[in-house]
Queue: 2 jobs
Job 1
Amino acid sequence: MSEQSTKTGRQETAAPAIELIGISKAFGPVQANKDISMSVAKGAIHGIVGENGAGKSTLMSILYGFYKADAGEIFVNGVATQIPDSQAAIKAGIGMVHQHFMLVENFTVLENIILGVEDGALIKPSLAKARSVLLELAHEYELEVDPDEIVENLSVGHQQRVEILKALYRQADILILDEPTGVLTPTEAEHLFRILRNLRDQGKTIILITHKLKEIMNATDTVSVMRRGKMTATVKTAETSPPELAELMVGRKVLLQVDKSPPKLGETVLEVSDLRVRNEFGVERLKGISFNVRAGEILGIAGVAGNGQSELLEVLGGICTGTGSIKVHGDELDLTGNHSDGQSRRARGIAHVPEDRQRLGLIMDFMAWENACFGYHHDPKYQKNWLMMDNAAILADAAAKMENFDIRPPNPRLLAQNFSGGNQQKIVLAREIERNPEILLVGQPTRGVDIGAIEFIHKQIVALRDAGKAILLVSVELDEILSLTDRVAVMFDGNIQGERVTAETDEKELGLMMAGASEEAA
Amino acid sequence: MDFADLFLQFTVTLDMTIRLSTVLILACLAGLFSERAGIFDIGLEGKMLIAAFFSAAAAYHSGNAWIGVLAGIGASMVFALIHGLASITYRGNQLISGVALNFLASGLTVVIGNAWYQKGGSTPPLTGNGRFHEITLPFADLLRDVPMLGPLYADVLSGHKPIVYIAFLVVPLSWWVLFRTRFGLRLRAVGENPASVDTAGVSVIRQRYAAVLIAGVLCGIAGAYLSTSQAASFGKEMTAGRGFIALAALIFSKWRPFYALMACLLFGLLEAISNLYPSIDVIGLFSIPVQFTQALPYILTVVILAGFVGKAIPPKAGGAPYVKER
């Protein structure tokens, strides 16, 4: 229920679409939002940047009625508005495109559109109405999508369109997008921004939450920066620059470029040929790929998530089985038999920083010191005698790693889940890098990691390269691939679409390859 | 054995299949509503048992079987509400809550039954209007002499107790509610991705309670059928695992009403065969022992629950209490 009451004197002609005054919100002892005030002009694209945990999503959730603010006022188009639940937000004309789509995957597009705003007890009339509205919107905003398709059969980009259509169908005038490009190819992202500009030109107001500074610079008119629950600045996009924004976000100067020398290439360490992997349903996810990694270089694997990169890391790391050949220093690895496990891979000098650190890299309910030895816990230096482990040694070892990798708080007895994403990642990296592996597999090293920590992690990876190790880096962030790797292979649909020397390619070319364009076309 | 004889056995088997399937159909649809909304319901058994007891008791004292049904529905809904409180409001483990209800039902019925009737947990036999009687469909007697179709109509379709017809009508009704109404759309959405319903501004909790209570009503009718139609009194543990067979049928049917009907009929058929033909002679070579035919429905249950019958994908949010994420 929205109670649009208490009209104040704010109803002059140019009342902002959204005005927040003194919003605060705490979760237990954590103050997620501290006395935040901001104003979003009508018909503008307003960006909000900040590190993870800066409070961006919390603030937007308050605006969308997901949480209730502890204090503060919300004005929508100049009218003081209570937003106790999402229904009220929808009524006030606010629509939200969540980072994790709020779609029912086995419903059709139409069913998803009408869910919650059906016109009557029977759904048939609503479906018919939604179909015609969808046609109009598709026309107006380049939002084409097949209304009868089951959502799980749609590409992520199209699923996102469904989310936008959902908001528009609910007659939203103010559209909030939370990290909308994380799952898109550069081409899809470009299309999305075109849609957003289109919507803005039709008078809609758009709030864009992102941690990608480039998107802020490209797409927004105004940008607000958040740090540790506070709003630190609001500036016109045209009057600022990425370094300035980064400094506002982190609170200190940040090096956005990776500082690295040309690679000193050694012999070939990792040779992969005709590698194939089937998933549990028998679908081929790796379709015979081949590549090499040499000592002293970083090979990047680019691609939109879900094109086989995960399977590649898993088969290399010994988590799943496959066929074909993987050679380390010319010796064949066991891909299906008794030695196709992570333990055997580590014995061959392959360390693995998995993509999903919370599922594969750490045990979240265990303490940091325990996590810091997993996988290497059979090492004699961790054993007291034939029966007992040497906990004191493990603890000391973990404390040293935490010091070297600047893991905060430096308390080895803290549960893994109590560390921030960046520090969790550092625990995994410290564990794997400090073993001095021949080959390092890294998946999404900076996903969910703050700018400050990204800088540190990148430095560590480059340092390992300069020590003459072979590194395979999988990332969906093109910027990361471009700045960190020496060579890049683009994966598409289980194949390697093409390989480039990083210094000789650019985002556009890689983007086309990521979208499946053939080698010649790209 | 001539043809007429064979045909007679055929109709008798079908007739019994329908009678024995009724409980399963109602219980299976109860589970379907609950699980489609994301609440696992392992307590179908307990709800039916408590309903069977209270409907027998109410029917005995009132002398009216319909009052028995209402009492059964009431008792089952109380259990459903407990399951709802535990698994929706207090976000407990749905399996444990279900198992607890099963134990509670099996203990309560015996304790209360002994206290009230001193008959070792049974209720006194129902007589007159205290139990349900067969309904003869129109023209059944007239058409009986029509070859083939006559007996099928008069002996298989006609001559069942009212709840049998209710159960078979609930199948298309459930389909219609689930797939053609706003209520059904939201219910299915809540079982797949509750956050999508929440962000659409619809209460997940209310929707799930509605589903759980519908399951309560259907289990209530099923329990009442056991003690006022299939039998004429309550007997200790009279559900005999039918709640679990219904769960197996639910998985077999991949959570779809008409498939559920088919699965339940299959289980009913197996039970009918074991009742009618305890030992089957295989062309005079050897005979299948009675223990085997009696165990057939349970064997099929185990086979299905162990996942040997294709891949059944349950509603995605099943079993997980809904918590708004941070």
Note: Strands of chain B lie at 280-282, 286-288.
Job 2
Amino acid sequence: MSAHEPIAGIGETHLLPPNMTFNDVTEAVARVTENKAPRGWWFLFIGALLFLGVLNAALGYLLATGVGSWGNNSPVAWAWDITNFVWWIGIGHAGTLISAILFLFRQKWRTSINRFAEAMTIFAVMCAGIFPGIHTGRPWFDYYMFPLPNQMSLWPNFKSPLMWDIFAVSTYFTISFLFWFTGLIPDMATLRDRSKTRVRRMVYGAMALGWRGSNRHWRNYERAYLILAAISTPLVLSVHSIVSFDFATSVLPGWHTTIFPPYFVAGAVFSGFALVLTLLVITRQVFQMQEIVTIKHLDLMNKFMLGTGTLVGYAYAMEFFIAWYSGNPYEWHVFRFNRLALTAEGFDGTMWWAYWAMISCNVLVPQIFWFKRMRTSIPVMFVASILINIGMWFERFVIIVTSLHRDFLPSSWGYFSPTLMDILLYLGTFGLFFTCFLLFIRWMPMIAIAEVKMALPAADPHWVPGHGDEGEDQDHAPATEPAPAE
Amino acid sequence: MSADHNHGGDNLYRIPADNIWANAWKLAAVLGSIGLIGSAFGAASNPERFAFSWLFAFYAFLTFALGAVFFVLIQHLTVSHWSVTVRRTAEFFAAGIPVFALLFVPVALNADTLYEWVGHGASHEEGHDDGAEHEGEEHSSGESLVGASTARAQAPQEADAHGADADGHAAPEAHGPGAHNSPQHQLHGELLEHKAPYLSLTGWYVRAGIYFILWFIVAFFFFRHSVQQDEDKSLDHTRKMQAFAPAAAAIFTLTLSFAAIDWIMSLEPTWYSTIYGVYIFAGTVITIHALIIVVVLGMKEHGLIGSAVNIEHFHDLGKLMFGFIVFHAYVGFSQMMLQWYANIPEEIIYYHERWHAEGWKGVSYFLIFGHFVLPFLFLISRVTKLRLSLLSFGAMWMLFMQIVDIYWFVMPNASDGFSPHWLDITSLLAVGGVYFGVVFFIMKFFPLIPIGDPRLERSLGHVVT
Amino acid sequence: MSEDENTPDSPEDEALDGEKAPALYLAEFDTTHDVLHAAEKVRDAGFEKWDVHTPFPVHGMDAAMGLSDSKLGLLVFAAGAVGLVGGFAMMMGMNGIDYPIIIAGKPAESLPSMIPILFETTVLLSGITAVFGMLALNGLPRHHHPVFYSTRFERGSDDKFFISIEVGDPKFDLEKTRELLASLHPTHLELVEETVP
């Protein structure tokens, strides 16, 4: 028996159907771009365009009137704008995690979902980028953030975490885009070779860059992919760490704590996985991809959410404990009264609901994934993933707003309420995200065809067909195989 | 396939009596005895220094054992097959963890020397009550902010006093109940009283007991099932280990973090950092990968494991070690940068002691370069990771740097400036000798490879795909 | 396993002017196993201008083709070093030398606050070099190649595996090379011709 056959006795199963062929993979993925779009796609696309219109209208209004149309005011000077920024950036992190970190750890199951998640990364970072761009109030002066001297011959201040953010986010976008594009090249060649019309052949041909599957090319390609994975891994850690530095370098209670960098990264991956799952569950149903994105993939993703959700819970607990342990009365006040706000008489305070929404959605909800029945139930995971997305939005809201609204001076305590502009802008970014996303799943290979093929047993040169699904029989393999010699 | 010798006799992958490894435990025992005698002498002549040196050595080697526990459970958590052939080595080192309960005794007995907060034992009870009352007030009214801001305003002075008065810091008797004369001391005392519900000697002992019991349970659960599987080859063991791994990971995370707070962070009871557990964790993970590389290579060179561990296993271990070196640097940098940037006196005191106190700046630089920059440049190339002599040199270096790292965590509390002491060496010999002696002794009785693991064959044929 | 070993057959017969000249042999295989061992034989026969075309990277193929390790790593390392030094020069020059500013009591040139941007510039240049370096080493983008004259090659990005030996190879011989390839039991063998203007 082949060593790589799953051992049922310890819970191993085939990831993909054992009789799946290379051509099945090509067909399943490519046909989405070749057939007519399902009606459901059109409904969603029109809806997304409407929201995109909302975004444009909101941006137009904002530019015409200024950021005064937001609910931000002293003492809550940062609110939904930065919450949305951090939330969208976090969503993107799952894509890089799946494409880079799981690649380095040789988790082959990633191949069915990585393309999808990488595309989400790019669109999410685009949505995120809007907010820092416009929250300056006068976006036509955004070039002040470039390393150029202004009219006072003053350069940007590189000691500011906000400048670090500029570098981190733009690097992240560039590298994610290149990573995504590199992965697309062989699949674009597949679409090119299947094209029936001249236009498709030209367009996909141009994007395939003349790829001909040459092994001399694969050699450099695989190395490039490995290097990109190796540098994307610390990059993804750095991006959300730097985002967390925006808060943690300050001396504001509730913001200044050393666990922020890894805690933000864990939370980002957590929320990103949740959104990938939300969209994946719908997409695999609409486009009939259950054979490639199997229930086992979803099971593994739910385990990941349980893990990262629990890590986030660890960070919440550690923050809370140290807030008390530090003996710093302001820190303790933020946690005890601005956030937890649980007294003998019930909840006391004005923002406790945000903290409790965060705890329930992010720590308690994922705990249902300890049970396999929950991990493999589509409705359960769909609802849970949406709750987690809500919870992770609240996490950023809690960090930003509850820390600001009641700080050192009781005389300047305040409250934050969003205005219509806040809400429309946030909803509008969904329009941008889904417009891009729907176009992507319609016209591009939403699953990495070449990589899924690599995960099939027949991709191993030691595998010989014609023995059913017992891909065994080592006799055919000559002595040149690199078996460890005694 | 070379997996054929899987079905060999009972002596497969065992240490033969004439092999040098059969006597390794004796060497460790001799070194350990020398260390114990020296430390015992030091404990009599310089009890204070002994306490710190022993804590340092105890904790440094504890991270080896905790790393081993983590390595074993993460393999089951991720259902890895590549690591099966090296997992037993980690299981041995994890199984040695009860030794630390014994080695903890000198730490427990010297708690009053080591931990400044113990000096507040006398005022503990009333302080505790006061604190509770005070908190009660906070609950009912918003008034607390007024009082709090006064305390806050004086906090910097307190921290300064704490830093400047390093003598008092190192000599806890100055903090006895009678020494609360100056306002700074009073504030300092108040802060410790605030923490008394957590930093009380009873709680500290109870928690230490819980940590050891949980570590013992986790380590032995995995060890027992793994060695039983050698005999009966039952898949049940694998199932059980995989089922327990997630819970074990949760136990491990919490106990590691709070043990770090209890034993090391509370050496400076007014200082705090939320990332501390992650920092210690990152170090232990580097350590176990380095340790496995060194020990497994040693076994391989003496013909104990044949080709069960091949170059790809070493390459993977090397890559993981490299990755965690970067992760450790990231965590260390995050803590340092955030505290440096915010520059709050009660936090920056930690780096002040490790940068401006005499001699420690050199150690800090040594850590930056020796723990990150040089290993990073050395191990980034696959050439180094695939040449076993170079890789094992890198691994040994990282083991050394882990000990330096723990030294840097602990010892600034022992003396004013950087002043190494011979007791540091004897304590390391004593703790290390006892621990390694026990581990090497256990090794004699079990196969060095988990020969019953259902994934063994895959691991034996491990090639990069 | 060989079903038909056709003689040269070029399907690309659209109204193209100019003469046709042999460009390469294209042998088709069904499994990774077959193409890997066929590649070993072609390697041992000492060809240079030949290639294996697969829809995904096949493990062990580099050794079977006798290819050396990719040089990309060195390029990326150099680019990363440039990014690191460049980032340092940028911040040092702007905030440290040209217009020193003291913010939050930190000296104008303080290293800890530079580290995040140093990391980002290093990664940025490394990543860009990894992708464009890979394309450059591969000679891509390239809009035309003789293999594309074969219609069968359209499945080379789906589920078929090909070995191509180009006419330009010093050992190429219309008859002998064909014999060699035929002896490897391809499922299909063809001589691809290209149009010479």
Note: The CA atoms of residues 214 and 368 of chain A lie 47 Å apart.
